[in-house]
């Protein structure tokens, strides 16, 4: 059986042109959701069709690609997308954050700080931050156009009224360049401060919703909050069981059915680099007593 | 400065001139002109289909008139044609200087979010950014409209009809508007709840010095709330005057019919 031959990076050149135009517009208007003619991709919606199209449009033969899924380089989604571009574009792939030029991510920003020249591509399920408060798309677009964002604070108000603090832990709304309110995709709010004044270009692709938006390098990104309930990061108050890191975002892993659990870095590359550098955690280390705000 | 200092109750707040609205061949509303002064409550009465609600939508700039125009005196004292305001200005006006009380509270409230957030939404929309202060103001307003403050975190979908209507009023008045539009505010409520709501509205209107335009088919509402009455029939204003005068001594046969169709107490 002959393997079908694909155009470089799967998409045809006209489609890539169309997506690049949307990307350029998105960069010109930070945080604004640009509609684009999203294509069917050889994967189901929800598996990163938006991110894959953005990556396909910006990828060049010299690029080095890294794909992470919830911080991890070795989950199904990350591996299949990495292999997809390895096959259709023949680009070099890596798991190292610093070596990569293009990083496609699902729901995390790497721990290692990004440098100029890198592009971070987010997979976005729901690009509209106002969606669950105002179901009419015509209305939310008008609200964006007129910068009417009182409604976004209604959500935060509801959180405090119900839980006593802003309980939104992921997809935490941000204001980009003091103009557009944006959904940073379901990244934990721990990652929000990394978006502010970031040296890398950040692109967001939502395939099913047909939207692309962007944060250009060195743009101010502010997490919304109240004066008396300021934005706080959250992480499990424990060291990583593998590398002992005390400042990285942790995954909780259930190890048995007797309440046993361990906390490990969600960013596998960061964790491995630290272990290679001689840092070790103790798998039996009990988590610190959990605190709501760190 | 003399221009500004003359901003008092002698100048009209809202002026309508020759307003008309056609839906194809149907003239829903024709040649309506009047002026509303600060602190004045105007009732628009008439039977179903007489053009009351169309007129209210024209006045509140939700519909574009087929002819005529509406002018509103902004807070800086300048009378401006509503059709010439940009959309952003119009929407800003709508959520700060105006209120709109719908007949069906579900249209004016966010049924799924708490009462406190419903009242606080307008404040947050104009830039309030302090949770404690927003909540305090919301509590104060719930008290003023006689809703138990203990229910501040309950969503209006758990409220009774009368409570929802009172919550809607609180939500509209929290930014201290100067003009409130009301579309059948007591419709669908039972008589005792109506009485309580009317009493509340009358007090609030006089305390805050609000101007209001109330659309109603219930002459009792007009008599209790309003200073002036406009009677509409077939899209035209057929009679207008002081409330007591129109209701006690109607001139037009149609108004006489309306007044005589109320059951004597």
Automatic annotation (TrEMBL), chain A:
<comment type="similarity">
    <text>Belongs to the PhnJ family.</text>
</comment>
<dbReference type="Pfam" id="PF06007">
    <property type="entry name" value="PhnJ"/>
</dbReference>
<keyword id="KW-0456">Lyase</keyword>
<comment type="function">
    <text>Catalyzes the breakage of the C-P bond in alpha-D-ribose 1-methylphosphonate 5-phosphate (PRPn) forming alpha-D-ribose.</text>
</comment>
<dbReference type="GO" id="GO:0098848">
    <property type="term" value="F:alpha-D-ribose 1-methylphosphonate 5-phosphate C-P-lyase activity"/>
</dbReference>
<keyword id="KW-0004">4Fe-4S</keyword>
<protein>
    <recommendedName>
        <fullName>Alpha-D-ribose 1-methylphosphonate 5-phosphate C-P lyase</fullName>
        <ecNumber>4.7.1.1</ecNumber>
    </recommendedName>
</protein>
<keyword id="KW-0411">Iron-sulfur</keyword>
<dbReference type="GO" id="GO:0046872">
    <property type="term" value="F:metal ion binding"/>
</dbReference>
<dbReference type="InterPro" id="IPR010306">
    <property type="entry name" value="PhnJ"/>
</dbReference>
<keyword id="KW-0408">Iron</keyword>
<dbReference type="GO" id="GO:0051539">
    <property type="term" value="F:4 iron, 4 sulfur cluster binding"/>
</dbReference>
<keyword id="KW-0479">Metal-binding</keyword>
<keyword id="KW-0949">S-adenosyl-L-methionine</keyword>
<dbReference type="GO" id="GO:0019700">
    <property type="term" value="P:organic phosphonate catabolic process"/>
</dbReference>
UniProtKB/TrEMBL annotation, chain B:
<dbReference type="InterPro" id="IPR027417">
    <property type="entry name" value="P-loop_NTPase"/>
</dbReference>
<dbReference type="InterPro" id="IPR003439">
    <property type="entry name" value="ABC_transporter-like_ATP-bd"/>
</dbReference>
<dbReference type="GO" id="GO:0016829">
    <property type="term" value="F:lyase activity"/>
</dbReference>
<dbReference type="GO" id="GO:0019700">
    <property type="term" value="P:organic phosphonate catabolic process"/>
</dbReference>
<keyword id="KW-0456">Lyase</keyword>
<dbReference type="InterPro" id="IPR012700">
    <property type="entry name" value="PhnK"/>
</dbReference>
<dbReference type="GO" id="GO:0005524">
    <property type="term" value="F:ATP binding"/>
</dbReference>
<feature type="domain" description="ABC transporter">
    <location>
        <begin position="14"/>
        <end position="259"/>
    </location>
</feature>
<keyword id="KW-0067">ATP-binding</keyword>
<dbReference type="Pfam" id="PF00005">
    <property type="entry name" value="ABC_tran"/>
</dbReference>
<keyword id="KW-0547">Nucleotide-binding</keyword>
<dbReference type="InterPro" id="IPR003593">
    <property type="entry name" value="AAA+_ATPase"/>
</dbReference>
<dbReference type="InterPro" id="IPR017871">
    <property type="entry name" value="ABC_transporter-like_CS"/>
</dbReference>
<comment type="function">
    <text>Involved in beta-(1--&gt;2)glucan export. Transmembrane domains (TMD) form a pore in the inner membrane and the ATP-binding domain (NBD) is responsible for energy generation.</text>
</comment>
<dbReference type="GO" id="GO:0016887">
    <property type="term" value="F:ATP hydrolysis activity"/>
</dbReference>
<comment type="similarity">
    <text>Belongs to the ABC transporter superfamily.</text>
</comment>
<protein>
    <submittedName>
        <fullName>Phosphonate C-P lyase system protein PhnK</fullName>
    </submittedName>
</protein>
